[in-house]
Amino acid sequence: MGFMESVKQANFLIPEDILHDLRELVPRGEQSQVVTEALRRELKRRKLKMALERNFGAWGARKDLGSTRSFVRGLRRERRRSKNHPA
Question: Given 5, 35, 66, 68, which residue has the most CB atoms within 10 angstroms?
Fold first, then answer.
């Protein structure tokens, strides 16, 4: 947990074998931190998965952009022409 991060107590159920391993392997003063870090990683993974699912195929819906390759070529041409963004 970060410096001066506000915390709240949460009560939830976890499988007995996981609780046993947590208590066996992690010192008492570090258990909340270990659970927090694991939960933070899982939530980050789920957020990324949701974002990918929401946006998957969004490029394909934009027929006006053409293929990825042609779009990138066009961007590069525009940059070369621009005085503000030399290639």
Answer: 35
39 CA to centre of own chain = 13
Residue 86 has pLDDT above 60, yes or no: no
**Which residue from 53, 50, 70 is spatially nearest to 62, judged by alpha carbons?**
70
Burial 28-59 (b: 16+ CB within 10 A, else e): eeeeeeebeeeeeeeeeeeeeeeeeeeeeeee
Calculate helix-pair angle for 31-55, 16-25, nearest 10 degrees.
130
pTM, whole model, 2 decimals?
0.60
Mean pLDDT of the chain: 86
Q: Are 74 and 68 in contact (CB under 8 A)?
A: no
- List strand residue ranges (DSSP E) for 9-83, in order: none
Query: What's the confidence (pLDDT) of residue 56?
Result: 75
Q: Is the pLDDT of residue 29 over 60?
A: yes
